[in-house]
Amino acid sequence: MRFRPLLAAATVATVLAGCSSALGDSKTGTTTSGAVRIGLLIPQSGVYAALGGDMKNGFNLYLSQHGGELGGHKVSLDAADEGAGPQTGVPAAAKLVQQDGVSAVVGVVNSAVALGVRSTFIEAKVPLLVSNAGADGLTSPASPYIWRTSFDNGTVNAAMGALVAKDAAGKSVYLLAPDYAAGREQIGGFKKAFAAAGGKVAGERYSPFGTTQDFQPYLSAAQQSGASAVYAFYAGAEAVAFVKQYKAFGLSGRLPLYGPGFLTEGGVLQAEGDAALGVQTGLQYSNQLATATNHAFVSAYVAAYGKAPSTYSVQTYDAAAVLDKALASASGTSGADIAAALPGVGSIASPRGAWHFDADHDPVQAYYLRKVVDHGGTLVNAVVGTLAG
Ligand code: BEZ
């Protein structure tokens, strides 16, 4: 099936990218033409580069649907490359805040980057709307300058704990993840809920993040442990390699594979191909959600970019919606003005379903059980149930 790009979205994105060097007033976070400067901090390289692309598309789609404005202000977008970790992400955040003089920043995929840039935003009084990274400690204690439109690593995995314990029926499960903040926290959140539901862990291993190409030693350890199933957190390029090797190693069909939704989310699912069939995951979104709001969002996204949206697209589309509401009621366009307005944004009508911020500025939202199926020749994350969040 071929898709026709939506010219409006492409045009807005080009215009915004062209504005990134505009000079202006760093106190009000505006350019000389009065546009409010917003930073987009996303990976354009490394394991999570594809996630960054989906996030940029989500933000630009919201802008194109709202005449290039947020809260009645024209927007000038400054993009910076988060790269593969804190070594690149921390200086990129500092550039947006100190050099470009943005009023707010949206993005950040990697938990280690998010933890590394937290104080930069609090000290500069510039709001950071994290539209992916799930680091548990990021939003606690709550800061007026740190908000998250995605999930926290513990909660998104806890949602799967009881289900996997029930499916395993007294047998044990093996746990795998990359060795960095998010990998440890995602498995930690799952383990807590899994143990509370009577689940037994056969063992766990953490692969070096960003450099592991060969997952065979980890798959072999899972097989030899006697586990009846595997629960794994991997995302982006690592998810593709892991799921394909899971099948090649002969574990598909023998040890059911579960995980948080990142394992089969976005472009990685088509890259995984048949190896992903039957994988069950938990997440706050699937582009298969059967609601009018989601159908309209998916149609607009496909028309604009020629591919289906992911949770990364939605999380960043929603961050634009949050900024739209905050700027509409703010007394000015500075970071402090936006931060003062953020507590009043209320409910966000999202493609994932309506959600609102909790006291720590994390989303209160529904979680869905998804299963990879072949839907007329296309692999999709079919929604097969809801999970307790
Ligand atoms: C994280 O580092 O928090 C993360 C990265 C990719 C997907 C989900 C979480």
| Approximate helicity band | 40-55%
**What is the radius of gyration computed over CA atoms, rounded to a whole number of angstroms?**
20 Å
Percentage beta strand = 15-25%
Strand order of the biggest β-sheet: 10-9-11-12-13-16-17
Structural class: alpha/beta
The helix count comes to 12
| Global mean pLDDT | 93
Task: Using the alpha-carbon principal axes, give the shape.
Answer: globular
Largest sheet: 7 strands, mixed
Find the count of extended strands (DSSP E, 2+ residues): 17
Distance between termini? 36 Å
Pattern of helices and strands: HEEEHEEHEHEEHEHEHEHEHEHHHEEEE
Give a short summary of the structure:
The chain has 389 residues and is α/β, with parallel strands linked by helices. It has helices spanning 7-18, 49-65, 86-99, 111-124, 153-168, 181-196, 216-224, 236-248, 267-272, 292-305, 311-329, 335-341; strands at 24-25, 30-31, 36-42, 69-70, 73-81, 104-107, 128-130, 146-148, 172-179, 200-208, 229-232, 257-260, 280-283, 356-357, 363-364, 367-375, 378-387.
